[in-house]
Amino acid sequence: MIPQQKISLLNGERPLWIHAVSVGEVQAAVPFIKAARDDGFAGRIVLSTTTQTGRAMAERLASGLYDFHIYYPWDKMKFVKRALDSLDPAAFAAAETELWPNMLYECKRRGIPAFLVNGRISDRTWSRISGGFFKYAAAGAFSLFERIFLRDEEDARRLSSIGVSADKMYVTGDAKVDALLARKNIAARDEWLDKLGRDRPIYIAGSTHTGEDEKVLYAFEQLRAAEPDARLIIAPRHPERADNVCKLIPDKYIFSKLSSPISPEWDILVVDRIGCLFDLYGTARSAFVGGSFTDNGGQNILEPFSWGVPLQYGPHMEDFARASRAFIAMGAADQVSDEKELADAWIRVAGSKDSGKWQELSREYFERSRGASMRAWKIIKKSIVSGEDQ
Fold first, then answer.
1. Three-state DSSP class for 263?
2. pLDDT tens string 134-184
3. How far is CA 300 from CA 101, 179, 315, in A?
4. What backbone phi and psi angles, to 5 degrees, belong to 82?
5. Which of 18, 38, 106, 139 is the least crowded, having the fewest Cβ atoms under 10 Å away?
């Protein structure tokens, strides 16, 4: 039930309802909201999430850009109808791969256009929907969208192959690129460099999962033989693991947790707080991205590469498979099978005399990829802003 005090904030206007399940989807939805506001859209915007962490991320990234937040209703028809009765949205937009059949069906029945923004059909999603009954069910659900805005041509080919009309689909690029570029803060990065010290090269292992930290520490030990001044930052995916990570560090290294006083002579730093990894990536000479030695689909490799940092990651990068293939083809990333190959990759980076090449590759990649949110918004606004040509 949406509180009446929130409904009253709409002043009788029909809002644009944007849904983003959790943190990842919020990061895709926020650039779209910003694009609408930058384009002069002054209408009401309601943002829904399913998780509390998604709500917290929205408040951090987009405070003031939307009118209010609600938690998404359970996708049962009576709850969907109640939410739509309360909000009476002019349009509904879901981020990434969210298919809520009852919501989409009811929007269709009421003549409320529904859109999928920053749509992506990951390898894992494709394996679930590409055959048998699921193929037809997925095609039916996707076909309920008025327009589908996809990250790249491969997403479009996949949906076309299961029967989704090509007339519905637009390849606009990855909205998360816009989000990343908007988040880049050179001053914040430089503050970290001043705090951590600029005199010794930093290597980062970001968003590591249980079982990966030992491999990273092995690779770092091999790196130190080639580059004795090298330092390591380990940022566990879940910061509450920081104490366990510290217990793995050999006694010969000087280490600190980020929230504690940091020794000027530190060798290894363990990140035990959230919200700072992205800026820390900008301090690194090279970055290993976790969730990739373990079978977790890989964490976000776009974040370190947006700083022009060369990448390493393990064999599991299913959630960023296309970006991974692009980065490897560009010579910006190494996909390594174990800790020995990670050590070799770090040693190669340490011996490189041309660090500027990664900066240039990053600039070229992101220049090609930016602007997806505004491209999608320009099409969607025709359905919700009066006076636009159809």
1. coil
2. 899 999 999 999 999 998 899 999 999 999 999 999 999 888 888 888 889
3. 28, 13, 14
4. -65, -40
5. 38
164-180 core/surface letters (b: 16 or more CB in 10 A; e: else): beeebbbbbbbbbbbbb
Query: Which amino acid does the sequence have at 331?
Result: G
- Find residue 203's DSSP bridge partners: 232, 286
| Spatial distance between the Cα atoms of 32 and 175, rounded to a whole number of angstroms | 7
pLDDT tens by residue, 203-259: 999 999 999 999 999 999 999 999 999 999 999 999 999 999 999 999 999 999 999
Question: Which class in CATH covers the domain with range 4-181+370-384?
Answer: alpha beta
**47 closest CA partner among 26, 27, 22, 19:** 19
**Structural domain boundaries in the chain:** 4-181+370-384, 187-368
Record the pTM.
0.78
CATH of domain 187-368: 3.40.50.2000
The SS3 assignment for 69 reads: strand
Given a contact cutoff of 8 angstroms between Cβ atoms, the answer to whether 325 and 302 are in contact is no
